[in-house]
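Renewal narrative, Specific Aim 1. Our central claim is that a sequence can be written position by position from structural information alone. The example that follows is taken directly from our test logs and has not been curated for this report. It begins with the structure tokens describing the chain, in the order in which they were read.
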């Protein structure tokens, strides 16, 4: 009865969209959660994304509870700056960051039902550009599968954007002879990509919210459920009905961070079977900082102390 009356209508997916192939990554670390520090434990509720000010050595993050906070990198000291309905504090730079993070918080509110968009399987996403001088917004690319993180390249010739359920990142040329062209950047990622960040040293760091293929996860039952759901719309509808009654099984597992070079070649994969909904990764010095929409802290991994190893 519930199935028949529910209005959720998931779309069939093509064989290309269902491809379970996964790229080979030269190095990997699968103990990320177990060896990381928890920065701001209990005071950073769902720190989805981060911005880093290298001059002051401070990370800014917006959280699901409405707080925008800063964390000092050298001693992990946390200061709450602003919450919805209050006045930003700090210098003009911090006020600008607060404004930016406020926009992030508004986006986060709309992401509370992200699972609906992913399981519906329809390319509703878009890549947009905004001109602050004219206050106009332009649609650059349409028909994207859950369009997500965006990052410009060091030469600013194109931007890279993520499509979460499609497990890929593509690039859009913003200038030059190929302006307006969309090309492949990296495909067949070992998980669903969220935000992407450039480290200033020739590498991109991509947050992976969850594994999707049973070939990657030792506890195959959870990852197999993603594979089955993507192949069968009626399973996705059942999952959404279960979601509405808070009965959906927790499928978001083995999250982490993928590292790739400027050409889109895989370098390393940091993850953990028990990690869930990792949304961003940022390398600062010898540390990897990770945000999420799930945990009440920022993960900090000492890359020098816990390096990745070859997968061969």
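The sequence written for that structure reads:
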């Amino acid at each position: 009865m519930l199935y028949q009356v529910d209005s959720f209508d998931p779309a069939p997916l093509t064989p290309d969209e269902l491809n379970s192939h996964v790229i080979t990554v030269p190095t990997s670390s699968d103990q990320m959660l177990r060896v990381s520090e928890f920065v701001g434990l209990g005071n950073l509720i769902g720190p989805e994304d981060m911005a880093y000010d290298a001059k002051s050595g401070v990370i800014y993050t917006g959280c699901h509870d409405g707080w925008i906070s800063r964390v000092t990198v050298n001693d992990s000291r946390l200061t709450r700056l602003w919450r919805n309905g209050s006045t930003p504090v700090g210098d003009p730079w911090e006020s600008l960051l607060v404004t930016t993070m406020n926009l992030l918080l508004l986006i986060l509110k709309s992401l509370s039902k992200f699972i609906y968009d992913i399981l519906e399987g329809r390319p509703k996403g878009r890549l947009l550009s905004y001109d602050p001088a004219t206050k106009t917004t332009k649609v650059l690319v349409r028909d994207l599968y859950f369009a997500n993180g965006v990052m410009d390249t060091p030469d600013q010739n194109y931007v890279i954007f993520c499509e979460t359920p499609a497990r890929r990142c593509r690039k859009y040329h913003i200038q030059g002879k190929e302006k307006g062209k969309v090309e492949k950047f990296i495909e067949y990622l070992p998980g669903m990509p969220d935000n992407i960040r450039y480290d200033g040293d020739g590498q991109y760091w991509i947050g992976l919210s969850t594994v999707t293929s049973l070939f990657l996860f030792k506890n195959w039952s959870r990852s197999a459920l993603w594979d089955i759901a993507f192949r069968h719309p009626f399973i996705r509808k059942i999952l959404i009905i279960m979601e509405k009654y808070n009965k959906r099984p927790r499928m978001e597992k083995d999250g982490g961070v993928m590292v790739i070079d400027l050409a889109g070649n895989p370098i390393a994969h940091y993850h953990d079977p028990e990690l869930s909904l990792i949304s961003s990764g940022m390398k600062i010095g010898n540390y990897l900082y990770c945000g999420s929409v799930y945990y009440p802290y920022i993960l900090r991994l000492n890359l020098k102390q816990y390096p990745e190893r070859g997968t061969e």
